[in-house]
Design goal:
This protein is α+β, with helices and mostly antiparallel strands. It has helices at 53-61, 68-76, 79-91, 96-167, 171-182; strands at 3-10, 17-24, 35-41, 48-51, 65-66.
Length: 183
């Protein structure tokens, strides 16, 4: 029976969530599987991967073939590196302690890169937020200036109307008041 390590899709439309499963290659994508060894959430940035390394390593050593996507996931999480080092131990290239030391060194380097990426994303987010705030402040200032200009023009027009009303003779206003009671 050919065994594959692959992704099984779950979640709703446009919100995918995947289980990393070991399944018969003839079984449907989301169908029957032998064992679930992890999960993948691609919605988060960076994607969240939970993986049982020991089970994945055991299945790989037993001959299970990962799909391309799962192979990338296993590689990023160090399963393929650990498998490679264990094969070196079997061949006698180095001992188990040396293999573990090399794996730990690789893991620390990988963690440092991931931490740097996370910090970079966080700083970019902060910078982007500050830039948007500056742009909003410019728009606000422009609107405030436009409103102040419009208000000053309206105030000048009102002053001009008041001055014109004061300089005009009061007789037409009295005639209008005398005509009102007759109507």
């Amino acid at each position: 029976m050919p065994v594959k390590i692959r992704l099984a899709r779950h979640g709703r439309k446009r919100a995918a969530f995947y289980h990393i499963v070991v399944a018969d290659s003839r079984a449907p994508r989301d169908g029957k599987f032998i064992e679930r060894i992890g999960s993948l959430n691609p919605i988060t940035n960076p994607a969240t991967v939970e993986l049982d390394m020991e089970k994945a390593l055991e299945w790989l050593s037993n001959g299970a073939q990962p799909t391309d996507t799962v192979k990338n996931i296993l590689s990023q999480n160090g399963v393929l590196m650990k498998k490679h080092l264990l094969e070196g131990v079997k061949k006698g290239a180095f001992d188990q302690a040396e293999a573990e030391r090399r794996y730990q060194a690789w893991k620390q380097e990988k963690d440092a890169k991931n931490q740097a990426k996370a910090e970079k994303l966080a700083s970019e987010t902060i910078a982007e937020k500050a830039e948007r705030l500056k742009a909003e402040a410019k728009v606000k200032d422009a609107r405030t200036a436009a409103i102040a200009k419009k208000n000053s023009e309206l105030a000048k027009e009102a002053e001009a109307a008041v001055a014109e009303a004061e300089s005009a003779p009061e007789e037409p206003a009295q005639e209008a008041s005398e005509e009102a009671p007759e109507a």
